[in-house]
Structures are given as C-alpha cells and as structure tokens.
Design goal:
35% helix, 147 residues, alpha/beta, 6-stranded parallel β-sheet, single chain
C-alpha cells in the first residue's frame, strides 16, 4: 500500500463477516490494495459463526495506516465499545486520519448519547453503511471515491 491509496478492514470477535467480505472483495475487484486486519492474534469467528483469516495484525496495520485512505469497521455498537478499550486502535485511527482517510461504520454506530467515543474526533470523515440490501452499491460508491 505504498502508493498512498488503500483500505483497511478491521476484524475482531463478533464483527459482521458478511460486511467484511463484501468490502474486501469489492476493494480487491477494483484493484485497490486492502488488508483484513486482525485485532487479536487468534483467528476469530464473526457474528454468524464464519471464521476469517486476517491478512495482517494490528501492529502491522498501524504502520500501514499512514498510507490508507479508508478504514472499514464492520461491527455494531457492542463491537465498537469492545475495541475502543485498546489504545492501539487510536494509533491506527490517528495515522489514517493524518492521511485524510474515510472511516466507514455500520448504520447503528453514530456517536450520540453515550455511544463509543472511538471516532468522535473524526466524525466529519465518517460514512455510515446503508441498509444491508444496499451494501454492495454502497461499497462500490466508496471505491469510486478512492479511485
């Protein structure tokens, strides 16, 4: 991802594997460098029981975040609350933000009324997923913004 364009799709326990797979597939189809980032060392099953094998770990993703234009977080509110406790996430987000990256979240994740503060400093760069039936078109629109 040394060309200053690329995406990171975060992956952790109970994240939505269908969303993660759609984004990774669509980015790769568009020939945009993308990495599935494991937030833990072990392989974890997603919300529906499917285990995905990350391309890289969080430590490597932090280094790559300086060169990414998009960070996808395919989880709902409980997942955000869980990962916001990890200070490494903030390093990744800060570095991606320095590259003016876009942050893509599930529609139930806007930061209001005591919800996680993980992206409070970047809300002007957050895009919310649409309804699940429109996710393919949405992923393709994100890609068009990166090309």
């Amino acid at each position: 991802m040394g060309n200053r364009t690329g995406a990171l799709v975060l992956w952790d326990k109970f994240f939505d594997e269908s969303l993660a797979v759609i984004f990774v597939t669509e980015f790769r189809r568009a020939k945009i460098p993308v990495r599935l980032v494991g937030l833990r060392r072990e392989q974890l099953a997603g919300r529906y029981g499917l285990t995905l094998y990350p391309d890289i770990g969080l430590r490597e993703a932090i280094d790559m975040a300086t060169y990414t234009n998009c960070v996808v977080i395919p989880c709902e509110l409980p997942g955000l609350k869980r990962i916001e406790r990890d200070p490494r996430i903030y390093r990744l987000l800060d570095r991606a933000n320095a590259n003016n990256a876009q942050f893509v979240l599930n529609q139930s994740n806007p930061n209001t009324n005591g919800e996680p503060s993980i992206l409070i400093d970047y809300m002007d760069k957050v895009t919310i997923f649409p309804e699940r039936t429109q996710i393919m078109l949405f992923a393709q629109s994100i890609i068009c913004n990166l090309i």
